[in-house]
Amino acid sequence: MSIAEHPQSDSAAVRLTVPPDAAALDALRARVHGPVYRSGDEGAAAEAACWNVAVTHRPAVVVGATCAADVAAAVAWAVEHDLPVAAHATGHGPVHAAVGGLLISTRRMQGVAVDPVRRVARVQAGSKWAAVLAATEEHRLVPLVGSSSDVGVVGYTLGGGVGPFARRYGFAADSVVAVDLVTADGELRRLTADEEPELFWAVRGSRSNLGVVTALEIQLFPADEIHAGCVFFAGADAATVLHTYRQWAPALPEEVTTSASVLRLPPLETLPEPLRGQLVVQVTFAATGLAPERCAELLAPMQAAGRILLGHVGRMLPTELDAVHMDPVDPMPTWERGVLLRELTAGTVDALLAAAGPGVDVPLVSVQLRQLGGALARQPRVPSAVAGRDGAWGLMVIAPGVPELADVVPVVVRGVLGAAEPWRAPGGLLNFLGAVDGPDDVVAAFPAEVAQRLVAVKRRVDPRGVFTAGHALTARS
């Protein structure tokens, strides 16, 4: 997340003309239990550090919150001093640097409590999915986790959340049953379908736009038998593999969620030798509630599509789900952008291969097609503001976010997305928008009526634009 990332937005950075003085910081320290850092203090950089090391936040003040009361006090203090506010836990999500303002780090808030009778987990704001999976495993329950258990629960969930069970159970945001939220007035509110229902609707899908979340309560699901994994195909077979995939995936039942990615892997010794330094196509498969024999039958056509370098699909525990996508664990620099597609045709695949396939030399890490549809296309029993229900596919392009490629990467990424423009669907997935050009791109991610309703909520609860972090909607949107 970031504080002043969009030049077109209500500029938080512009308001910050004079850094808080020592007396103001002492007053903040007296109101919170966690550490308080001014920019340049020892420990400030570590508190604001992101998993995406291409992004270096530079807030004026950082608070390491330990509880909801710390968050409320910090927000109230920031408003008193006319500072914008942002919050982060793991730093997986930011695509722009925070400059100025107050950054609240929630990474110390890691409590997880499971109610197996209600099938609900209460998760504090700094928690990662790994902690939730560990807590739910003994009850044979599972949350709507993402592709990496190292990611923070709150940001992933409230931005939508598309994980290995998505087509069966829907967006992770739709599984939220309660939210504890500190709004711009410094008040801690509890949001449910019955308590502040309009704000509850809005926060599920708008991520950091309306306040700082201190805890979520999320629905859990039976840990039915999971059959999952991935297969890596030789890059030379990319055309055959992707054309097979585009015909195979749409015929799968909703119990199955898949993706296909063209990966350019670095020559690292930590990678298995068959993949090291290679261009490969990775196809993922995650099924829940289907018999192993049925999964084998469904997989067979895809497994015959090309030369397999490595991979395994089989029975899997919820705590082993990282093996499906095999996302990187160590911090790395990335620059990314994504769109929705309404269909995946032969022409779409050919266009993507021409722009990013084995026949071209481009500085990309991943070009991923993520299968949507199923429950993702339907509103839950308690509707939410989640964007992206009209897309059949998510197309995400990730490139190295390193200084020496800073001028090249955006052009290449936009070129790949532009190749798919004839098949683009309206809207977008908030968590996969990546490096947008401004608030107009964020507004366009939502259907027009949803965007108008969200902006109305924003004007009501944050009229001064205290929260302009991340993919921000502004009061002027």
TrEMBL record:
Keyword DNA-binding: no
Originating organism: Modestobacter roseus
Keywords: FAD, Flavoprotein, Oxidoreductase
Protein name: FAD/FMN-containing dehydrogenase
Taxon lineage: Bacteria, Bacillati, Actinomycetota, Actinomycetes, Geodermatophilales
PROSITE patterns registered for this protein in UniProt: FAD_PCMH (PS51387), OX2_COVAL_FAD (PS00862)
Top-rank taxon: Bacteria
Pfam families for the chain: FAD_binding_4 (PF01565)
KW Flavoprotein (keyword) present: yes
GO molecular function annotations of the record: FAD binding; oxidoreductase activity
Protein family according to the UniProt entry: Belongs to the oxygen-dependent FAD-linked oxidoreductase family.
Record domain FAD-binding PCMH-type: where: 55-223
Cofactor: FAD
